[in-house]
Structures are given as structure tokens and as C-alpha cells.
Specification:
Pfam families: PAP2. By secondary structure, the protein is mainly alpha-helical. It has one domain. The chain is about 55% helix and about 0% strand. The protein is built from six helices and no strands.
């Protein structure tokens, strides 16, 4: 399954475009959560997406430390696991985070607004781009997507967003609601 594809760091596959999608997703989720608060459905979904991104990041980073797989840019052998602290290929943190961000929106709004399923193109794009720029093997991005999707579903099925539960009375005030 894992193999090197021809290197392509041009056009839409450029690393800078990947970074724009990754950081843009994080900023959109964080900004939306803070702007809307958690008192309406959309704000609650943003907070759940934030929870999923945090948990996906923790999980994928822990897995990177455990598995220590070399990236395609470091080796031609996809079976090089446990290679030391410089090997951080498995799984893809970026694909995991973007998958985690979009899953709560798809799970919450997908039945009533089918166009929301188009959000799945974001992690799919990032997965292909990471493989093309030799940042990850194919299995890295698939496992990253699975972790992110799993964390997104976990966040949706909780009684309330995890980050909100850490606050004494929740986050009742979104900046778009009140300017006290």
C-alpha cells in the first residue's frame, strides 16, 4: 500500500497551500467558537470541532512519539518504524486535525444540509498533498484521517463540549451576542 509517488511541491500541492488550509482551519474553528459562544447550535458545533482538534492533536503526536516512522523524504522504505526522535511520519497530525475539525459539522448538519459533506474535501486534499510532497506515506494520512474522524464523532456524542466543561459556568457569552 505504501509507496513513494512522484514528488510535487507546485501549484495547489505546494507546502504553503497545505499550511494555509491547516492553519486556516484552526483559526476558523477557534474564531468561530469564541465569536459564537456555546448557546446556539452552530457555536456548540464550533466548540465540539475545537475539542476534536485538540484531542486529535494529542493522539497523533503521542502516536508519532511511539511509532517514530521515517517520512518518505527520509527513506524509500515505508517499513522504517522506531527510528528515533527525528522520525515523525506516522500518523499525519495535519490530516487528523482537519478531519477532526470538519467531522462535527458533517455529523451535525449533514442530513439537513447535504452540501456540508463537501467539507470532507479539505482533509482529502491535505492527505493527497502531504503524500505528494513526501511528508507522509499513504497509511500515515489514512490513520490520521481515522483518528481525526473518530475524535470528531467522540466530540459530537458528548453531552457538552469538553473544553466548555472545564469552565465553571460554561462559555455563555459569544462576542457576536453581547458587547458588555
Amino acid at each position: 500500500m505504501d509507496h513513494k509517488v512522484p514528488y510535487d511541491n507546485s501549484g495547489i500541492w505546494k507546502r504553503s497551500t497545505q499550511n494555509f488550509v491547516f492553519y486556516g482551519t484552526g483559526l476558523a474553528i477557534g474564531g468561530g467558537a469564541l465569536w459564537l459562544g456555546d448557546e446556539n447550535r452552530l457555536g456548540d458545533t464550533f466548540w465540539r470541532a475545537a475539542d476534536a482538534m485538540v484531542m486529535s492533536g494529542i493522539t497523533t503526536q503521542t502516536m508519532k512519539w511511539v511509532f517514530q516512522r521515517e517520512r518518505p523524504s527520509q527513506t524509500d522504505d515505508p517499513n522504517k518504524f522506531f527510528q528515533g526522535w527525528g522520525a515523525h511520519s506516522f500518523p499525519s497530525n495535519e490530516v487528523g486535525a482537519i478531519s477532526a475539525a470538519v467531522t462535527p459539522f458533517i455529523a451535525t448538519y449533514g442530513k439537513e444540509q447535504p452540501s456540508v459533506y463537501l467539507l470532507a474535501l479539505l482533509p482529502a486534499y491535505d492527505a493527497v498533498a502531504r503524500v505528494k510532497t513526501h511528508g507522509h506515506w499513504q497509511s500515515d494520512v489514512l490513520v490520521g484521517a481515522a483518528v481525526g474522524t473518530g475524535m470528531g464523532l467522540w466530540a459530537v456524542h458528548r453531552s457538552s463540549p469538553w473544553t466548555i466543561s472545564l469552565l465553571p459556568d460554561g462559555f455563555r457569552l459569544g462576542y457576536s451576542h453581547y458587547f458588555d
